[in-house]
Amino acid sequence: MGIINTLILSGLLWLSFVVSLAAVGVETEAVPFADHRHDQERTALGDLLWKKELGDRAVELGFHGVAEGFYREALAGVEVEPAMQRPLELGLVSSLLGRSRWEEARALLDQFEGPRDGPYWIRWLVAAYQAGDSLSGEDLARVDLRTLPPAERGWYHFLRGVHYHQAGQSSRSEEAFNRAEEASVAAAQRSFFQLAQYQLRLSAGPATDNLAVRLRNQMEEFAGRRIGHQFALQYAVVLDQLGRGPEAIEILQRQLRLLPPEESDLREQTLLLLGLVAGGGTSVGRDAFRQLLLTGRQMDLQELALRRLAATAGPDQGAETLAFRRLLDDLIDREAGHPLMENLLFFRAQLALGAGQFDAAEDSAQEILTRFPGSRLRTDALALLASSSWQRQRYRTAASYLSRIRQEMNPGERRSELGVLLADSHFRAGLQAGSSEDFRNAANVYGLVRGERPARISAGRLFYQQVLSELGAGQTERAEALLELGTASDIDPENRWRAEWNFCLRLQEEGRTREAFARIASILADFRGPPELRLRYLWLAARLSLDAGRPEETQGRVAALVAFAEGAAAGTIDPSLLREVKSQGRLLEAKADLALGEEERGIARLEGLREQHPGSRAAIFSYIVQARAYAAANRTVEAQRLLISLADNHPASEFAPLALFEAALNAERRGQEAFLTEANHLLERLVREYPQDDYVFFARLRQADLLRKLNQFGAAEQIYEFLENNYPDRPDRLLAQISLADSLMAQATTEPARFDAAVARYERLFDLPGAPLDLRVEAGFKLANGWQSRGDFQRAQQVYLEIFQRFLADPEAARNLGVKGRTWAARSLFESARLYEQQGAADRARETYERMLALNLPGAGLARARLARFPSDS
Predict the structure, then answer these.
(1) Rounded Cα distance, 407 and 737, in Å
(2) What is the Cα 707 distance to its own chain's centre?
(3) How many Å apart are CA 161 and CA 193, to the nearest integer?
(4) Cα separations in angstroms, 667 against 216, 679, 707
(5) Residue 552: which pLDDT band, with cuts at 50, 70 and 90?
(6) Tens digit of pLDDT for each residue in 354-368?
(7) C-alpha distances in angstroms, 11 versus 14, 497, 538?
(8) Dihedral through CA 281, CA 283, CA 284, CA 290, nearest 10?
(9) What sign does the CA torsion over 267, 273, 276, 278 have?
(10) 387: enclosing H helix or E strand
(11) What is the pLDDT of residues 276-311, one digit of tens each?
């Protein structure tokens, strides 16, 4: 066999392996000439949006410590776009201010690089207020109320109230405070305003030493009377404002000892004030709030205490958080119940979620929805359930909750961001289950969100995700329509290129490479986009000319590519991109030579590529191209040596795991036991050195296959079961399941019990709705063949008939079968016809062979030969 024919045959065998991986959701080729930070950002976008959403909700509910954790995690992740960076940084400042950490908040604001607009100055003024600074009219004038989002307008009115209070204008201060409460959009914000007003009203004016002396004298003069206790509270507030907190605490503790039982309202006010002065993070403050929650009768004061304790709880599960969790359990478990029960349940759910106790978090959230269907915390409970489901990778469940939340929200940026989370949930469910319906749902929601034009999320990214979702749903035509319409200027070249590349890859998978080539050629003929995108299209046209079986045209297209790179594009495109495109062009030239049978010239080009562009992706991949050429010529030793040298010399390369995998395949091809053992060692090296790589799954799968060849069925089955149990969310785990069934069936002759186990697995895969069609046909054939080997021809024929009815009788279903599926279907029909012949049913046998021909299935020659043995109708 000549090198060209051998190379083509080897390529087809390799392609069948690659297609089998793609069919179960494994990306077999990264997008070329792409900034792979975008891959990380795309993957991380959903997680980042979740952290922002949970941080925002935690701030609204008063969980400032928890919110801080979410914002810091989001900001510590992959680099995000400035439009998303700004709200995360402002959210972090809000979480710090919620815990009175104004010095840290000021430091962040000083470093802030975004526009210093209303939201910035609001936080700056809150920090100034917490620092004890006076707020001037000039300070307030920096904020234009009309530019503030609704959630921050209450702060504006509150700060005006502080300014008027400091100026001694009590009536204007009261008016502003009332407007602040009216404008508040969350319970925690309203609680903050109420607490601050409470303390300001108690202080009876700006804190001075003279005022402190006067209040102390009044406290002592009216000691033992109600008004004396009231003066004591005012005195404690002033002492605290003067920086004399320990004295204030002592005064309040003394008052608690002196208050008679009938003054329960004053006692509760004193407990609240003691908690505020001491701080919820101290044992004194925590105990005061605890007593108020356990024994108090004033629900509004109890809620204020609860929220101050919540503000101290952080994501680190430290002593303060654990103490708060125990208090919540005590209050919830009381027989008499508690008037703040829905708040208690939600706060407990929030803490459980932060600790990764998902069942406990969901139980508490569901209890809110069941016991308090009209609760103001209903949406927050749904958001918590959605977050828990997302973190547990239960993406369909997360999507269900997110859809309910989004339906109840008004249009706006936050609703759009939730829409992205909803779409991402559907998309991840599609990746998880290989379900076209999930991808269809994702595409619909991405389309809706694109129409809402969110300001903080890249339009190009949403466009790319929508195209990917349409392709995942098998809607190639809809994806193409998106590409035709997606020419808006807000779709950046990077995402446009990624979408086009994936679309062309899908056309190739569908056997429509010539269409893909014609599409790119047509785009180039009338191209008006940026030079960097033109450069990528020029390379893709050269690549597709080779894939379309026109290697003689590839050389000219590479020449045009290089000419553009060295000419018109040289001064306008990133030099690193130019170098990568040129090196990839040289790689295409070498591949074209090999495809044309010019082995010597092709190998020389590959070696030259490694010399001219050392360390480039193309140069490293050239080892694999050369090794495949050697393997096609049955030079497996040289092929294996090249592949191992790639892994040895470039261990950090993305191609190193693939090189080890193919090196093992070459060792396996030599067939002898020693080489099978060597192949197993290479696969073990892949698993050991690249434990997180996608090829680990297939390396283990191949190891099990090798062990079967070595008659080590027990060890093989342990690996299959390991893959089945440890990769529950991978669609390709079904490959392990059918291989395990094959192993069991191979031993059925000597161990009859294994036959039943194999049959049960084949039946399950044959009937599994979400399984790839090709694999279901394969399972059906093996099930029928198993019964046939046992002499149960009736059962075998029944399964063969089911294969035809499920996958071949409907022309649309038949078109959905891939190369492997059509092969197994052909074998099923052929064996069915043979059984009919053996049973003397010649007409049924003839009809079945004719079906093979009508469906244009593989094995048509065998079917014709069989038909020729039947007497003609004439």
Answers:
(1) 41
(2) 36
(3) 10
(4) 92, 5, 14
(5) very high
(6) 888 999 999 999 999
(7) 5, 26, 24
(8) 90
(9) negative
(10) helix 378-391
(11) 889 887 889 999 999 999 999 899 899 888 888 888
